[in-house]
Amino acid sequence: MASAFAAAALLLHFLLQLLLRLSPSAAQPGFISLDCGGADDHTDGIGIQWTSDTNFVSGGQRAQLLVKNDQQKQQFTSVRYFPADNRKYCYTMNVRNRTRYLVRASFLYGNFDNSNVYPKFDLSLGATPWSTIVIDDATTPVVEEAIILAAAPTLSVCLSNARTGQPFISALELRQFNGSLYYTTDETRFFLTLSARINFGAASNESVRYPDDPFDRIWESDSVRRANYLVDVAPGTERISTTKPIFVGTNEEPPEKVMQTAVVGQDGSLNYRLDLEGFPGNAWGVSYFAEIEDLTPNETRKFKLVIPGMPAFSKPTVDVEENAQGKYRLYEPGYTNMSLPFVFSFGFKKTNDSSKGPILNAMEIYKYVQITMGSQDANTMASLVSRYSQAGWAQEGGDPCLPASWSWVQCSSEAAPRVFSITLSGKNITGSIPAELTKLSGLIELRLDGNSFSGQIPDFRDCHNLQYIHLENNQLTGELPPSLGDLPNLKELYVQNNKLSGQVPKALLRRSIIFNFTGNSGLHVVNNGISHTVIIIICVVIGVIILLGAIGCYLFTCRRNKKPSNDTVVIAAPAKKLGSYFSEVATESAHRFSLSEIEDATDKFKRRIGSGGFGIVYYGKLTDGREIAVKLLTNDSYQGIREFLNEVTLLSRIHHRHLVTFLGYSQQDGKSILVYEFMHNGTLKEHLRGAADEKITSWLKRLEIAEDAAKGIEYLHTGCSPTIIHRDLKSSNILLDKNMRAKVADFGLSKPAVDGSHVSSIVRGTVGYLDPEYYISQQLTEKSDIYSFGVILLELISGHEPISNNNFGLNCRNIVAWARSHIGSGNIHAIVDESLDSGYDLQSVWKIAEVAIMCVKPKGAQRPAISEVLEAIQDAIAIERGPQMHRTIRRQLMSNRSMGGSSSVSNTGDSSSVAVDLEQNGSSFDELLMRPGLR
């Protein structure tokens, strides 16, 4: 008998060991547990099987933690970290569609990079922002949990947008729910992020999770105290527990072990306060009750929910045993959609007819997060990359555009972006060109050159926006599709060095495009019905080369021997390259100075007053007494000549009192010169960070400068047709005249926004002011100017430069991140320039801070128009002028009354004059000042 028992025990032990060695899908259905950065699979102490993350993510490097943590779990000894760049790095996991999952991501820094720079970066679920991970302790894990309904066969968790340090992750877990657990009516539009999951009355500090909870939710013990978490515990709160079984098989099915403990309010109440991360917001919140005390027939337990300031949420009387239909059974009341504040105070209070105080076993609170629609081409792009699942470029994961685009993709900036550029040059791709590419209706640029594509070129007739097609150096066969000639916006078509045959469609030969089909021996051009084999580059290419050569000859050789005539301007590049708006300079609208005039005015360039990427600026004075600033080109590269022509052409056409006045130009003897009005007080930059006696210490004066500059930008954006995008707004390009009025200067990088849309261009601008969306997408819009102006507003508030190693704290170099942190926490004083005169109205500073933060939003679509920014600045000025107006109006009113006249007062600000009569209206002076229009 004993031997039989021993044999049975041995068999049982063998079966348990076998079970632990089963694959995760067999032993733990619906579980994925990734040890990020771990080299080997392993099973932890509670039986969860962990897998190396190698096959779930593309890119990143492994690192071991240098600072030990108190958990000593294997999955918390290493991390996978990623570059701090503009890309996103995604884990992609297979899921069951239309099934709910718990997703848990853990981050333990442990000084893995040996830098002691605490990282800060973004976490997203697919295209939807999930959380900003902020590390402030090397040894304490940051854990984020979400519950989401899978809407596709895969689910992606992405890291991106590092502000400090490098993005990293320690562990990533996926847990599948069954049935209707955590069902919400809006689950296709929102997912839930965990704010609190508490096991009340817990016997120890240990959390309850798998295997006690078959879904591996982590129930935190209420005995673990964190700062501002679970405080204000009412007197008389006691812990109780039971070992009896509890029925938990309804609703969210909390684990029995959690329901076997509770707290009771022996003095009649239970009170707690929670700080809910990410709130205020809409919440899903439930309480879990089970009667685990044996009450006598005369004892009752009835109580109500109490939320201070929210009487509407006080539920009807709760009788746990009655509601649960018996003892030791789960009862789960709650609200599936309620608005909660950041500091959430709540309690349960017994009713007058109850003999026992309230009871509470557990609680969960989640916040609703709206699911981002994602890019319009997400499904098409997912189908495309599925063809090449083994290729590294196809494994970036997540949405192709959000929160950052794939490295080989560029997307538009709208809320639901479209793919407009694909670059897969030299990726060693074989097979036919994927049909998915022909379904990308927003596609502008397609580069598939240098691969091994074979078969015919597909029909791109549905891609009406296509401008650039590069298919050269492949193995393509068959004829050129005639539909290529019907693409309305086509500018470049490169198909050379393939195996194409047949006739070149006549529609292509009639188009004014760059078209290269050399190296296709079977491709023919039909002329007068006779077929000829040709090796040709269309003449427009040759024309461009000849023109550039002639220009180079003229610029660097020919014109040394011959001075240009006084009625011409040398164009350094074809007008097409500068855009149709920047055509040849009209001499009748731009005055041309002779070089001798400039040399006389500047005393042969004697007094240097500034310099920049374009060249050197000198002071001068014309014979008529006008003071001038002379900008001499020293960069004679193609880019330098283009910027010179750009500024001449642009400034000869636009005029505004808040743009620096352009007086003319000179091109003679190899010198390219621009002439402007002289601005006596230099740049705004000098008056923010120059010598103490030069600093502008009046907040009102800084606001007036911002208003002047905004009016100049408003003219460029709304008063010009097409819109002019400055592209290099910065405090050194805002100049101040002798009256300290501001004007916008330096238009060498400016561009027109053709058709009111974006402009695809090489990224140019100044670090610190450069719009990050423009940098990533290379798509320039007027919202790029808005970003730069937002940085200038932050400079006006703080006095700091945009980029600094010293002014923004240990782990921050950028004024935007620094200011956003303080403004978001309500600490405006931390960013206000200490050199400002006292007496400013903090409300006006807040007004500018808020609009500045709107201006530097990551996406252009989220930023205000310049007219809205100008309105906010004028509101701030009105706030500052309020006390001054109060004194002026009082003085004028008193003067008028003493003279027996009417009380007619002219407002000293920019508003229209105001006429009042105190005797007629019967109003007090202070009442008058509160009327609209005077404040």
Question: Which SSEs are present, and which pair or pack?
Answer:
Blueprint: H1 2-21, H2 24-27, E1 31-35, E2 42-43, E3 49-52, E4 61-64, E5 78-81, E6 88-94, E7 100-107, E8 120-125, E9 128-134, E10 142-149, E11 154-164, E12 168-169, E13 171-176, E14 190-199, E15 220-221, E16 229-231, E17 237-241, H3 256-259, E18 261-265, E19 269-275, E20 281-288, E21 302-306, E22 318-319, H4 320-323, E23 334-340, E24 343-350, E25 359-360, E26 362-370, H5 378-386, E27 409-411, E28 419-423, E29 430-431, E30 445-447, E31 452-455, E32 468-470, E33 475-478, E34 492-494, E35 499-503, H6 506-510, E36 514-516, E37 522-527, E38 530-533, H7 539-561, H8 595-602, E39 608-611, E40 615-621, E41 627-633, H9 638-651, E42 662-668, E43 671-677, H10 684-689, H11 699-719, E44 724-725, E45 734-736, E46 742-744, E47 751-752, E48 759-760, H12 772-777, E49 779-780, H13 782-798, H14 815-824, H15 842-855, H16 866-898, E50 904-905, E51 914-915, H17 918-921, H18 925-929
Parallel strand pairs: 1-3, 14-15, 28-30, 29-31, 30-32, 31-33, 32-34, 33-35, 34-36, 35-37
Antiparallel strand pairs: 1-13, 2-3, 4-5, 5-12, 6-11, 7-10, 7-13, 8-9, 8-11, 10-14, 14-26, 16-19, 17-18, 18-25, 19-24, 20-23, 20-26, 21-22, 21-24, 27-28, 37-38, 39-40, 40-41, 41-43, 42-43, 44-47, 45-46, 48-49, 50-51
Helix pairs in contact: 11-13, 11-16, 13-15, 15-16
